[in-house]
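Assemble and predict.
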Amino acid sequence: SQQGEEDPQALSIQEGENATMNCSYKTSINNLQWYRQNSGRGLVHLILIRSNEREKHSGRLRVTLDTSKKSSSLLITASRAADTASYFCATVNAGNNRKLIWGLGTSLAVNP
Amino acid sequence: NAGVTQTPKFQVLKTGQSMTLQCAQDMNHEYMSWYRQDPGMGLRLIHYSVGAGITDQGEVPNGYNVSRSTTEDFPLRLLSAAPSQTSVYFCASSSGQGRPYEQYFGPGTRLTVT
């Protein structure tokens, strides 16, 4: 069963613009993770945010977590064509911390 | 470090055939997992392991077996291939103390069952 739902399903922006993707989930979590997948490749871990954290930064990435709304957002600032990829959120649930449950992903296209 | 390696990259099977997808990691990670990725379905967990000798089922384990005799290797066996198993399979490992934190993924195996 899918835990996370990303929104939007697809996003197209111009280089230099910011991209925001959202993830909603259903149950209490231990942590939430964001991954990137370039076409035809394996996934790459971007950032992990724990349930007691509200915001985290890594380079041009900013992740927020609102546990009261069961939602997270990923912001990519000053996007580049190389950011074109699919982005997935995944959660480790508080009740079972041995499994990572995935959303369906947001497809981001950054146009030069 | 080679990271997580998977073989083969591509495979075509006939219905009823069996095969093993290989996965190895050289990072001494305790946690390893197998996923399948289908269009519009995201990633679904097949089996996972929190250490050598310990495996457990994920969301979609039917038709697949795993074993974990060493820390490095985590092969996935398809017992009798079916067209519904046509998918891209990813192996992943994690340094998160036996938990799926910050997973490292292999390049994937694209399997077609005819």
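The interface with chain A takes residues 4, 33, 35, 40-45, 48, 50, 56, 58-59, 90, 92, 98-108 of chain B (CB under 8 Å).
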